[in-house]
Write a structure and sequence with these properties.
Helix content is about 30%, strand content about 10%. Strand 6, helix 6 and strand 7 form a beta-alpha-beta unit. It has 7 helices and 7 strands, in the order ααβββαβαβαβαβα. It is of the alpha/beta class. It starts with 9 loop residues before the first helix and ends with a helix. Helix 1 crosses helix 3.
Length: about 220
C-alpha cells in the first residue's frame, strides 16, 4: 500500500538545493538552537518538483507541507531553547522540500515508534527523520533517499572494546539500542546468530531517556 505517493519524489529535486548549500552549512561549527533559526537553509519554489506531486494527493493542510520528525538527538533533530520547536538537519531538509513545493512548513514532533501510524492516518504528509529503507517498510511506504546510512557503536573512552564488526564481537555484552529501529533488527539478528553458534547472548537494553542512557553507559 503506497501512502506517500509521489510527494517524496520532490526530495530528489530539493537535494540540488541541499547540495548547493552544503559547503556553507557544513562550515558552521556552532549549533543554532534558537527557535527562530535565522541561518536555516532555504530554497526557491521548483515547478518541476510541484509537477511530480500526484494531482489526487491530499495534503494534510492546504498550502502546507506537514512533516513528521523526531527530536531524539542532534544532528538529526532536537528541541530548540523554547523546548517546543524542532531543529536539526531533518527540519532543515524538511524546510528545503517545503520551499521547493511552494508550501509553508509545519513540523510535527512524533515519538519514533509512532511515525508509521501518523503517516498512515494522514496526520502528516511525509516523515523526515533518519528512517532507514527496509524491504518491510517499502511494502507500505515510498522512499526518497538523501544520504547514506552508516551505522556504528560507541563505548566509554577507556573501554577494552576496540572494534565491533561482526556478530561475535557483541556476544555476552550489554548493548543499548533504540526500539523499533533498523539498528535493533540488526542486533537481534546478530544475537540469534550468536546463540545458534553457541556463543553468549547479548544483553539488549532500551532507554527512552538519553540522560539515563549516558549514565548507564558511564557506569
Amino acid at each position: 500500500m503506497t501512502l506517500v505517493n509521489r510527494t517524496l519524489a520532490a526530495l530528489a529535486l530539493a537535494a540540488a538545493s541541499i547540495a548547493a548549500l552544503a559547503p556553507i552549512h557544513a562550515a558552521a561549527q556552532a549549533i543554532d538552537l534558537s527557535p527562530e533559526q535565522p541561518t536555516r537553509p532555504r530554497s526557491q519554489k521548483v515547478d518541476e518538483a510541484i509537477k511530480l506531486v500526484a494531482k489526487d494527493f491530499k495534503f494534510a493542510k492546504d498550502g502546507v507541507l506537514t512533516v513528521g520528525t523526531t527530536t531524539g538527538r542532534l544532528p538529526f533533530g532536537a528541541y530548540a531553547t523554547d523546548n517546543k520547536t524542532p531543529v536539526g538537519n531533518a527540519p532543515d531538509i524538511a524546510q528545503l522540500v517545503a520551499d521547493s513545493l511552494g508550501r509553508k512548513l509545519e513540523l510535527v514532533s512524533v515519538a519514533w515508534a509512532d511515525w508509521p501510524l501518523g503517516l498512515q492516518s494522514g496526520k502528516f504528509d511525509v516523515v523526515i527523520s533518519n528512517v532507514t529503507v527496509t524491504e518491510e517498510r517499502k511494502e507500505k511506504f515510498d522512499f526518497s533517499t538523501y544520504r547514506n546510512d552508516q551505522l556504528g557503536v560507541y563505548v566509554k573512552a577507556d573501554s577494552k572494546i576496540t572494534s565491533v564488526k561482526e556478530p561475535k564481537d557483541v556476544a555476552g555484552l550489554k548493548v543499548v539500542v533504540g526500539a523499533s529501529t533498523n539498528q535493533e533488527q540488526i542486533l537481534l539478528r546478530w544475537n540469534q546468530q550468536n546463540i545458534a553458534a553457541g556463543l553468549k547472548p547479548v544483553d539488549i537494553q532500551y532507554y527512552d531517556d538519553d540522560v539515563v542512557l549516558y549514565l548507564a553507559l558511564a557506569s
